[in-house]
Amino acid sequence: MANLPWRISVRLIYFIKKIAMVLGIVLIVLLAVRVYLSQQGPELHRWHTWRANEMSVKEMDKADFAQYLSRESAIFADLERQVTAKTEGEQRTPLNRYYRQSLVWPGQFSPDANRSFVLIPQGKPRGAVVLLHGLTDSPYSVRHIARDYQQRGYVAVVPRLPGHGTAPGALTKVDWEMWLAATRLGVREATRLAGDNVPLHLVGYSNGGALAMKYALDALDAPELREPQQVILLSPMIGVTAFARFAGFAGLPALLPAFAKAAWLNITPEYNPYKYNSFPVNAARQSWLLTQALQQQLSRDARENRLTRLPPVLAFQSVMDSTVTTRAVVTELFDQLPANGSELVVFDINQAASFRPLFRPSSWTALSELLPVSLRRYSVTVITNARADSFAAVAKTTPAGSTHMTLEPLGLTYPQEVYSLSHVAIPFAPDDDLYGRQPAVKNRYGISLGTIALWGETSVLSVGKEALMRVTSNPFYDYMQERIDARIGVSKE
């Protein structure tokens, strides 16, 4: 009997070794599959291997905006020398943004909306706003809203977040702390231009929404950070899919130069002048790390009752979103907020769509499962069809602290051929020249992506059909703009 514990220990060690061996074999197999699949994809080009010499976090925290713009100019000059000027052979196509003679080369458009910009209102500024674009995007994606703020007397500062606006390879060498440092830099510049005695707003789209919330939370703890008076979120990246958590694993083979393509989740033609189509593993990894830091900070501050000073949050979110998790917007953000005048606006699916039988059953229950009838500390507005047989849109609003819903006709219609909004549609008006379904100036930027309708066989295109099917503008943009304008009108220091 004296040897029994020893025998149990030996068996336990043997069992652990067997488990470790099995897990090791599984890991090797998964890595081998990852290597094989990545090697089957398209070849990497200069815009995938080029890296931008961005400012570090320490440099940005010590720099002013003029210094940031100076470094930005140097980065774009290097991009021109190392990538655009050396694009040759089969890559010289009419729809390659890195070919100087192509229709979509950004350098031919003035101003180049890939770069940071500042809009100054006429007269004395009555407020300041910092607008943050999304992951793989550029300042172009928040340009419409920036101009609206300018027209209403606000200084609008739109920083190009590190790794963006240049070439997708730049996203392989950045981290989310650099994006947050650029956010702080933008706030400092907005305050310098407008003063600290006027309201400060933060507007964030997608990944920029996570940065806006992270800054607002950080400002509660750091006296040197100026607190905003309003936060506006468009398709905010509060949570991402579970795959992003393990994206770093998918990129491990890329540590060996022969398997460099494993550092990319998607390699596709770069035909968009203001957004990357290729997507590196590091971008997914950094987005997950950012959302994890944000969720943990929100939960901690909510437990410690530290959110009472948080400014009101107005968010716009499609109930169907394949980029971020809509449920996280509700559970990880809004359900944590105090009763401070916050509101969530949700865009429902097109309940009157003629192709209703093709919908997944979960689509019909998505909204009711996301927002069951309940008393909440924030208001909820749902943009949906007036009736199941009508394309006329209405806003159904349930105020904070109530279950009584009011209905407001919008004078807008859900387009018959659009079955839902998408993550990328929210910030763009229907007449946007690049993404709109009815562009004011078609092909102003070499291509009007919102009007593309391609028909043919499924195996022909090098771009996934999902990218071309995705709706790229918001038919309810005017309503959204009115709601933002109302927040601008009531903001007080």
Report the biggest beta sheet as strand number plus sense, adding barrel if it closes.
10 strands, mixed
What integer is the average pLDDT?
89
At the third CATH level, what is the topology name of one domain?
Answer: Rossmann fold
Helix content: 25-40%
Whole-angstrom Rg: 24 Å
For this structure, what is the CATH homologous superfamily of one domain?
Answer: Alpha/Beta hydrolase fold, catalytic domain
**Per CATH, which architecture of one domain?**
3-Layer(aba) Sandwich
Percent of residues in beta strands: 5-15%
First-last Cα distance: 77 Å
Counting helices, strands and paired strands, the structural category is: alpha/beta
- Oligomer designation: single chain
Mind telling me the CATH class of one domain?
Alpha Beta
Report on the structure:
The chain has 493 residues and is of the alpha/beta class. The chain has a domain of 329 residues: 3-Layer(aba) Sandwich (Rossmann fold), CATH 3.40.50. It is 35% helix and 13% strand. The chain has a 10-stranded mixed sheet, with helices on both faces. A two-stranded antiparallel sheet has the order 6-7. Helix 10 links the parallel strand 8 and strand 9. Helix 6 packs across helix 7 and helix 7 runs parallel beside helix 9. The chain is globular and about 65 Å long. About 2% of the residues have low confidence.
Quick overview of this protein structure:
This protein is an alpha/beta fold. It has helices at 4-40, 46-49, 57-62, 65-82, 143-151, 176-194, 207-221, 247-250, 281-303, 326-333, 361-370, 465-469, 477-490; strands at residues 117-119, 127-132, 154-158, 200-205, 230-234, 264-266, 279-280, 313-318, 343-347, 379-385, 392-398, 406-413.
